[in-house]
């Protein structure tokens, strides 16, 4: 009995000494929880079918001078030509290369071995947007038909949580988005296609946009002009201050399908300016300033060859699985253009979006991993 008691006392003494040493050395503090992220709001922004080639190289000379695809080659060269890829891309998307490249990160320059790809086998819009928002590829989502998405997106998943319920919104130019988001089940407000701003307390600008949208025809039956999507979104954001927003611009894809390289380039530059305007507003609004992250990407790429392949995408057009993404916000290291060899995937967006909000997104299927490089450790 004497030995047992003494042994227990000795163990207690050693434990006390060890505990005191840990406290003094600060070892417990090194095991502390990571610092909380500053991001409280996330905007995911997509440019439909915007090629990585133009993002990183600006206007392509082979297309810039081709009158098959350009109405006024002299004018277009004045706007977008340059002696280097850096000069050309700065002319095309100045906000991306003046702001994101200095304060955020840009991925997907395949000329440097930096690759981003879709993981779905189809390489067109509905499968791409579903992959972005669910975090996985479903081969059975194989058309752009207006069929309700059977899967829960990260937007719907967040909207089910008390902190985000009623604070998630979607704005898009394409009229299929209500089905991709499955608005009936998700209960997320979707303003897409040719829908009007609705509800009480509309701003005077929203009332005017409703009227103007009916008076200005779109060249396409299922996609409105991006200016309406942008300003409907901006007015809603000013008025309602949602915490999670997806804005899906569409013109780049439709002008490309039409074979109008000039309009495709001008639309890309205009969309870049609109995202810049949105970022400027966010930084000026106390609700969002220094607490908001933008994730920017595309749903698919475009074909590489022959010379008219840039108009198309899909499995039969090699290269249209190649995409890109960018990020800017208070928790993202300013790496600029990421030039290292590497492979990233479209299915990583959903979990990364949630991670910025301190959430661990899960689904019934395995989802893509967080892009850890985007988030300060």
From TrEMBL:
Under the heading Gene3D superfamilies, the entry gives: Alkaline Phosphatase, subunit A (3.40.720.10)
Residue ranges of the Metalloenzyme domain? 207-315
Q: Which domain of life is it from?
A: Bacteria
Positions in coiled-coil regions: none
**One Pfam family of this chain:** Metalloenzyme
Q: What is this protein called?
A: Phosphoglyceromutase
The protein's organism comes out as Rhodocytophaga aerolata
